[in-house]
Structures are given as structure tokens and as C-alpha cells.
């Protein structure tokens, strides 16, 4: 069993890979972790993780620049139904559209739009940065097993995905209104928060993801 962490120049790859490695070791999971820019490696992986830091359009372009990568991601996640985790912008890329600095097409795997955060309380800052309490909208989801409602997770973002269908919303946070913290359907899951920076909560989620057999 192998997790492919997709390297398309998005930034936080090593911290994600290290967090997965530590979570696998502590949970006694026989799982290899590979950071890769190869579509062939993604096609062979049992699990796929798509991290993301930076602007949506730049991340989209980074994936498009890798020969065969977008097709390999679609084949693994959509056609073969392998467990897929998008993190931060990696989650946002699963949406139909992003409105960050223009209008940009996403993968269209989760219906919805990525739009600027607009807190109702003008004293709240954007970016939404730091620790916040998770409100689990789907507490029985296998990837949230053992994670309590109100658990702390680490965020840093100025845009958020608003899913078109309420049953795709797995977790939210309050930052002057409800903001999506996690989305998912079938074998797909995405977190706006950074599990690699979310200490015990993040380690539990990553271990659950690697155990997941949807």
C-alpha cells in the first residue's frame, strides 16, 4: 500500500509527507509514503494526497504542467475510486470554480464555488489564520473516527469552498459565519485546515485516511 503525495510545486510537501509517515508509524500501518511528480506513480498508488499552498490558478497551472497528471488524478480518484485527500488549495481544486483573482475552473468533483471569506463581524481578520474549533457535520464519517466535535485544527486561508449540496459538507468552523472545514463524497475528502499542522487531530485524520477503504 502506498500514498502518493503529489508534487506540483505547491510548497508544503515535506511537512505533509512527514506527517503521513509519523501517523502511519504511530498507528502501525504498513504504508509507504512517496512524494512524486509522476503520473505513473499516482496511477499505481493505493491512496492519493493533493496538498496546496498559494493561489488557486497557480496550483491549477502547476498540475497542468505535469505530463498526464490531471488525467492520472481523475483516473485514480473518479474512475477507480481510490481514497483521495485534498488539503487546503488541494481541496479547493476539487470544486467547480474558484473566484480567486478571476474565474478559474476546478476539477468539478465537488459541486460548489470557492469564494472570498467575508466575516459578518468586521473585526475578524482575513486571512482566517490559526486554530479554530471543528463543527462535525458528518461525525460518523470514517476519516473523522475518534475526532471529537469541537476539536482544534489549524487554518490559513482567505478563500473557502461553498459546496452546492449540504451532504457534501463534512465539517465547518465559525469565523463570522459558517466556513467549510471539510468536504467529501464517496472516496473523496478535502480539508481546508492543514492536518500536517493540526497535531493530534491531524495525525488521527491522516491515520484514518490511510486506513480508509471506501
Describe the structure.
The structure is a single chain. The chain is an alpha/beta fold. It has one domain: Rossmann fold. Helix content is 27%, strand content 32%. It is built from 6 helices and 14 strands. The strands form 3 sheets. An 8-stranded mixed sheet has the order 2-1-3-4-14-13-12-9, with helices on both faces. A 4-stranded mixed sheet has the order 6-5-7-11, with no helix packed on it. A hairpin with a 3-residue loop joins strand 12 and strand 13. Helix 1 crosses helix 6. The longest helix has 14 residues. The two termini are 15 Å apart.
What is the H level of CATH, i.e. the homologous superfamily? Class I glutamine amidotransferase (GATase) domain
Number of domains: 1
Q: Outline, from the CA principal axes?
A: globular
| Largest sheet properties | 8 strands, mixed
Distance between the termini: 15 Å
| Number of beta strands | 14
- The protein's oligomeric status is single chain
- By CATH, the topology is Rossmann fold
* Largest sheet, spatial ordering of strands: 2-1-3-4-14-13-12-9
Mean pLDDT: 95
Name the helix and strand elements from N-terminus to C-terminus, one letter apiece. Answer: EHEHEHHEHEEEEEEEEEEH
Would you identify the CATH architecture? 3-Layer(aba) Sandwich
Provide the low-confidence segments as ranges: none
Structural class estimated from helices and strands: alpha/beta
Amino acid at each position: 500500500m502506498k500514498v502518493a503525495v503529489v508534487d506540483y510545486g505547491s510548497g508544503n510537501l515535506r511537512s505533509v509527507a512527514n506527517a503521513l509517515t509519523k501517523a502511519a508509524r504511530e498507528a502501525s500501518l504498513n504504508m509507504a509514503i512517496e512524494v512524486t511528480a509522476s503520473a505513473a506513480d499516482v496511477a499505481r498508488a493505493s491512496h492519493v494526497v493533493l496538498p496546496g499552498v498559494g493561489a488557486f490558478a497557480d496550483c491549477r497551472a502547476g498540475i497542468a504542467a505535469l505530463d498526464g497528471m490531471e488525467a492520472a488524478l481523475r483516473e485514480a480518484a473518479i474512475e477507480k475510486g481510490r481514497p483521495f485527500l485534498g488539503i487546503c488549495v488541494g481541496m479547493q481544486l476539487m470544486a467547480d470554480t474558484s473566484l480567486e483573482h478571476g474565474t478559474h475552473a476546478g476539477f468539478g468533483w465537488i459541486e460548489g464555488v470557492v469564494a472570498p471569506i467575508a466575516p459578518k463581524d468586521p473585526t475578524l481578520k482575513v486571512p482566517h489564520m490559526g486554530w479554530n474549533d471543528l463543527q462535525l457535520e458528518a461525525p460518523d464519517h470514517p476519516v473523522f473516527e475518534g475526532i471529537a466535535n469541537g476539536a482544534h485544527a489549524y487554518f490559513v486561508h482567505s478563500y473557502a469552498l461553498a459546496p452546492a449540496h449540504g451532504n457534501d459538507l463534512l465539517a465547518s468552523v465559525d469565523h463570522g459565519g459558517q466556513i467549510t472545514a471539510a468536504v467529501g463524497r464517496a472516496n473523496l475528502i478535502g480539508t481546508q485546515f492543514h492536518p500536517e499542522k493540526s497535531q493530534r487531530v491531524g495525525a488521527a485524520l491522516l491515520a484514518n485516511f490511510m486506513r480508509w477503504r471506501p
